[in-house]
Specification:
about 50% helix; two-stranded antiparallel sheet; single chain; mainly alpha; about 325 residues; elongated
Length: about 325
């Protein structure tokens, strides 16, 4: 990956002894590359190491025997005379990531997080079953409120799946942004189920997300805390953005990876709770919502359910498991 590539114009040359980039709006010719080689030879590269030209081949099978790297797709050169280093950048950086590097990252994620994904998939499948059954019943009854909420739930589920894909691809700062959008949809659903007359406000675009989040936070313990964390740390620029997170294979369960897995668990659990509220009439026995007499449904999980929840969220004495 390229960590230094900046120029003030279409072509910038650096002074002697300084680090800089040579960019061109036209492809560099072999003659220009040879001139550069006269002053800055490539850093020593092992025969079996990846070739510095970015082809993906081993050095011995690529540029080791060539006077210059291939310039067919060359777009720039980063020069570091102090380290006797040239970095050649071709126009296939994004293509290489999509077709080559991303698959390696995804395989490393699958190996490290197999048990986590199985647990998440199980709960997601349960929620999807309730949505399908609930939508069928709501459609037959012409229940516009639940039909609308069901559509919102399906879009929220797509946001969750997208967050998993993004994390699996090596991106550790971006999943919470998607999960925040999921929670906003859940907040709207919870608000509508608590105040069904506000469906008209949603359809007219007058239902503010802040109002819905306030309702959801009051209805479900922990909703507001998680939404606030996503908003404060990820929706806007914060100190987290100052930490460089290069795309690379997952070697261990690093802290950023563990935090994201915890976010996925918390978000999916809230998703299931919202699904159960929306389609409680297709659930033989609700896990989280109880009705007191003829009053509205209230969030009231049993002691047994709270024990399961703490285990699912990896919580021990108020802290997440390592």
């Amino acid at each position: 990956m390229l960590s230094l590539m900046a120029a003030s114009g279409p072509r910038t040359r650096t002074g002697t002894g300084s680090v800089g980039a040579i960019l061109t709006s036209r492809r560099l010719t072999p003659q220009k590359i040879r001139i550069i080689h006269l002053h800055n030879s490539m850093a020593k590269t092992g025969r079996n190491q990846p070739c510095p030209c970015g082809s993906g081949k081993k050095y011995k099978h690529c540029c080791m025997t060539k006077t210059t790297p291939s310039v067919d797709h060359l777009v720039g050169v980063v020069v570091d005379p102090d380290k006797n280093l040239l970095v050649f950048i071709q126009d296939n950086v994004l293509i290489n990531h999509l077709k080559r590097d991303s698959h390696k990252i995804e395989r490393s994620f699958d190996e490290l997080c197999e048990s986590d994904i199985k647990e998440l998939s199980h709960l997601q499948s349960q929620a999807a079953t309730l949505i399908l059954a609930g939508m069928a019943k709501a459609t037959k009854a012409g229940d516009h409120l639940r039909i609308t909420c069901g559509q919102l739930l399906m879009n929220a589920l797509n946001s969750f799946t997208a967050a998993v894909h993004v994390l699996r691809g090596g991106f550790v700062l971006q999943p919470p942004i998607l999960l925040r959008s999921l929670l906003e949809r859940l907040a709207v659903i919870i608000h509508l189920m608590m105040k069904p007359n506000d469906l008209a406000d949603l359809n007219s675009g007058k239902l503010l997300s802040t109002r819905a989040v306030a309702t959801a936070s009051k209805a479900i313990s922990g909703f507001g805390r998680l939404y606030g964390e996503f908003t404060n740390e990820f929706a806007h620029s914060s100190s987290i953005d100052l930490c460089l997170q290069p795309l690379s294979e997952y070697k261990v369960l690093s802290e950023p990876l563990k935090v994201n897995l915890a976010y996925l668990r918390g978000s999916l659990w809230l998703f299931y709770v919202t699904v159960e509220l929306t389609f409680h009439d297709v659930v033989p026995e609700t896990r989280y919502w109880k009705r007191k007499g003829h009053g509205p449904l209230c969030y009231n999980p049993s002691t047994e359910e709270q024990v399961w929840l703490r285990e699912f969220l990896r919580i021990v004495e108020g802290r997440e498991k390592g």
